[in-house]
Amino acid sequence: MSAHVLKTHLPHHPTQLYLIRHGEVEERYHKVFGGCRIDMALSALGQRQGEALARWMGDTKLDAVYASPMLRVRQTMAPLLEKRGLTATIMDDLREIDFGDWTGHHWEGVQEHFGISAFDWLQVLDTTGIPNGESAQHLVERVQPCLIKILQDNPHRTAAIVCHGGIIRVILFLLLELSLAKMSHFNIDYGSVTVVELQPEKKHAVEIELLNFQPITVAL
Predict the structure, then answer these.
(1) Which of 176, 180, 199, 205 is 20 to 30 Å from 16 by CA-CA measure?
(2) Of 14, 16, 3, 20, which Cα lies nearest the Cα of 211?
(3) Whole-number pLDDT of residue 137
(4) Is pLDDT of 3 > 90?
């Protein structure tokens, strides 16, 4: 599996992407592998994070919004869409990773039942895979067409992608051409924004302008 195939699809125009992770989920799912099989809601803090995101974005140029269909994502982006009078394009393939047999287990439970540290989930995904879960190859094959379409449909524009921590890491993997396992070095917190600019005239066409910024901290 390689990210290099994306290179030929990169647009010949500047594009800015706001990669937004949904807010904190309800407490019973904290440190639980929910993935795409558990359609959990936001906690009270998660709802405030969505509101903080809408305030922080203010009048920032935003031409399009793309999103996962999952409830936690739809709740997070609702204040932003309402404030800006926008409608999101829902892409089913932006849903979170399928964690297979790990689904519903707390981090400690993964260690207990499978003998694997939960912190190594990206490395496991990139090598042996999670039992009955989504393979890294399948994950990339479903996310990559979404990213290509978003880039091709937004010449000289700014687009937001509201989704999940795992999916944001896959997008960064595709854009930066690093190994998927190395994406564990990028912390993607609840309610965070990562901004990526594609500037084809530069030697390094992909630049991270902002990484893992939580708008709610502005109000704290």
Answers:
(1) 180
(2) 20
(3) 92
(4) no
CB-based contacts of 195, cutoff 8 Å, min separation 6? 16, 17, 18, 19, 208, 209, 210
User: Both tokens of residue 100?
Assistant: 């297979």
Reported as a single tens digit per residue, the pLDDT across 134-175 is: 999 999 999 999 999 999 999 999 999 999 999 999 999 999
Supply the pTM of this predicted model: 0.93
Q: Is the dihedral of CA 171, 176, 180, 181 positive or negative?
A: negative
Phi, psi at residue 134, to the nearest 5°?
-80, 130
Q: In 3-state terms, what secondary structure has residue 196?
A: strand
DSSP annotation of 208 reads: E
| Alpha-carbon span 168 to 163, nearest angstrom | 7
Q: Which two tokens stand for residue 219?
A: 């109000």
Structure tokens at 139: 């994950």
The number of beta carbons lying within 10 Å of the beta carbon of residue 146 is: 21
pLDDT of residue 88 exceeding 60, the answer is yes
